[in-house]
Amino acid sequence: FLPLLTGDLGEGGDQGDQGRLGKTGPPGLLGLTGELGDKGEVGRMGKMGPAGDKGLTGELGDKGEVGRMGKMGPAGDKGDAGEAGVDGPSGLKGKAGTTCDCGRYRKVVGQMDINVRKLKNAVKFVKNVILGIKETEEKFYLIVKEARKYREALINCKLRGGMLAMPKTTDTNTLIADYVTQAGLTQVFIGLQAGLKGGGPVYADLTPVRNYTAWGLEEPSGAPSNTSCVKMVSTGTWNQVECDITMYYVCEFKKSRRGLAAVL
Length: 264
Hints:
Blueprint: H1 103-130, E1 134-135, E2 139-148, H2 150-159, E3 163-164, H3 170-182, E4 187-193, E5 202-203, E6 229-233, E7 238-241, E8 247-254, H4 257-263
Antiparallel strand pairs: 1-2, 2-8, 3-8, 4-5, 4-6, 6-7
């Protein structure tokens, strides 16, 4: 061989072992967007979120069916007597009576009339002097000298067979005011409330105050409150007062045997 001369290329050798993994190269360019895949399965329900704001009021629904009839309530108070009806036709003429010698009975009847008048005077004495009861053609009025709250006074008058006094006319108001003055009092509860369930003044029998009033300097607004009860002062004026204070009160009773027995 001559020096510095290159020989022929030899045959390729066997493949060597795999080299070590090189360092990560720089990121490649962003590829094209792939096609949209199929819709996945419904996921599990998440936790309940916080309550949202209150929605608008919906439209009024249809009227429901009539409910079952409830139990019968307690019997109400006896109503006022109705107006007299139309006179009926005259009856048939009766048979002639037998002649009576009534002279001996006239003296007895006359004595009975005297006794009845005495009894009436005695009853009037009991009512006006002993009990101090005042009366009109239709009702009795009694001052109960037991200091009570308004509701207690209302119940007490009902237990006696009456109601808290309701001065619905000028004459009745004047009679009660004079009664209060004669009893040496300055104020009493009467059956009147200035406001009930947002309405106007009503009497103890729940009838509205309409034709007659005797309010003081300012008529009540009608808003229900703890000062919606009413007292009458000795001058006859009505004033609002707290329902929880205690004072004497006036009951009224219809004129009947039962009512008179309850008063006496």
